[in-house]
Specification:
The chain is α/β, with parallel strands linked by helices. It contains 14 helices and 17 strands. It binds 4'-deoxy-4'-aminopyridoxal-5'-phosphate. 4'-deoxy-4'-aminopyridoxal-5'-phosphate (PMP) binds next to helix 4.
Length: about 425
């Protein structure tokens, strides 16, 4: 792994970072790839690719139940990755880190386990208007099953939570507050610690959808006041199909299992089964072992670069990108919050987002177009879809320039 910066240094060496990512060497339509779809999924550094390949080449075996050497080594590596994620999220105990398939499964786990045990008819679950479908639908399912109500806090025209309205919606009926750390459609960084204080004042738990929080800066679940924090490996330069859920230890211990199967039990008879303590209680079946090992490598890779340096790099790039996009006639940004991560969603008066995406693709610029699994956000801003350029640690000013040049071509093609 290249030492792109030391954790304490102030500036990220983007050229060194780029050398860590083999895919950035490839071309698309005979041009260098400009990858600006990081909010959907990030590329993988050599450190992660090697960790996964080495695991399969040297260690592969099922974990936790083998006495043979490979199984013990595989178990050690998987548990070491759990420790890496504990450290990455600032949790106190490894028992608080549950391996999942990703953010979606983490939120469903909380809804179906904590939610079904603690929420009843007349109770309320509070979310916001900017949530990803993964932080809406699990709560709707819980409401259908329990008779609880889903309450949605409004957002303003910049895409920020209206905190006065939010505070007025928190009451003794509120049992769960679930909010995205960073909006994938708008880029807004939400005031999680303040939201946590409001939730805790009424005895509610705070669930944080951290899918877009983890990759962009330092996360400290304790400072945030998160009772649960869900994230996905593939959004933080790790493998797909793996993620973690942080849960406060006392809460996890009191929660019923989410799925039944091997690994999560203490004893099984046909009359009754008893369950292992957390996190095993929530990890039924064989997990994505190599993925977990790769996720641990991703967390350590990001730490080796320095989360503050990453945050600063992306903030500078966002400022530059916002300025440059303003030069494109007829382009309107959707999401103009004061505190924003590197997500630039926009619409153009001359072309539909899908046409924009297609023209950009021919220029080797990869962006996402659509509703970004946040249809209520699109409704709030009165657009069917947006185009979204989202930044990662390897992006450069030159790539922003390539995006803007390609957008000028969109104007030419559609005669704007
Ligand atoms: N929440 C947010 C804010 C997201 O951006 C995403 C992924 N687009 C998710 C949740 C779901 O993540 P995953 O598909 O990895 O489970």
């Amino acid at each position: 792994m290249a030492a792109a910066t030391s954790p304490t240094s102030t500036k990220l060496d983007v050229e060194a970072v780029r050398r860590d990512f083999p895919i950035l060497q490839r071309e698309v339509y005979d041009r260098p790839l400009v990858y600006l779809d990081n909010a959907a999924s990030t590329q993988k550094p050599r450190a992660v690719i090697d960790a996964v390949a080495t695991f399969y080449e040297t260690t592969n075996a099922n974990i936790h139940r083998g006495v043979h050497r490979l199984s013990q080594e595989a178990t050690d590596q998987f548990e070491d990755a759990r420790e890496a994620m504990r450290d990455f999220l600032g949790a106190t105990k490894v028992e608080e880190i549950v391996f999942t398939r990703g953010t979606t499964e983490g939120i469903n786990l909380v809804a179906m386990s904590y939610g079904r045990a603690n929420v009843g008819a007349g109770d309320e679950i509070l979310i916001t208007h900017m949530e990803h479908h993964s932080n809406i639908v699990p709560w709707q399912l819980l409401c259908e099953q329990t008779g609880a109500q889903l309450v949605v806090a409004p957002i303003n025209d910049d895409g920020e939570i209206d905190m006065d309205a939010f505070a007025s919606l928190v009451s003794e009926r509120t049992k769960i507050v679930s909010v995205g750390h960073v909006s994938n459609a708008l880029g807004t960084i939400n005031p999680i610690a303040e939201i946590g204080r409001l939730a805790h004042e009424v005895g509610a738990v705070l669930v944080v959808d951290g899918a877009q929080g983890c990759p962009h800066g330092a996360v400290d679940v304790q400072a945030l006041g998160a009772d649960f924090y869900a994230c996905s490996g593939h959004k933080m330069y790790g493998p797909t199909g793996v993620g973690v859920l942080y849960g406060r230890h006392d809460l996890l211990e009191a929660m019923p299992p989410y799925q039944g199967g091997g690994e999560m039990i203490r004893t099984v008879t046909f009359e009754k089964s008893t369950y292992a303590p957390s996190p095993a209680k929530f990890e039924a079946g064989t997990p994505n072992i190599a993925g977990g090992v790769g996720l641990g490598a991703a967390a350590r890779y990001l730490q080796s670069i320095g989360l503050e340096a990453i945050e600063r790099h992306e903030a500078e790039l966002l400022a530059y990108g916002t300025e440059r996009l303003a030069e494109v006639d007829g382009l309107r940004m959707v999401g103009t919050a004061r505190r924003k991560a590197g997500v630039m969603g926009f619409v153009m008066d001359c072309a539909h987002p899908h046409d924009i995406g297609t023209i950009l693709d021919r220029e080797a610029v990869a962006v996402r177009t659509g509703h970004h699994c946040a249809q209520p956000v699109m409704d709030r801003f009165g657009v069917p879809a947006t185009s979204r350029a989202s930044l990662g640690i390897y992006n450069t000013r030159e790539e922003i320039d390539a995006l803007v040049d390609a957008l000028q071509q969109v104007r030419e093609v559609f005669g704007g």
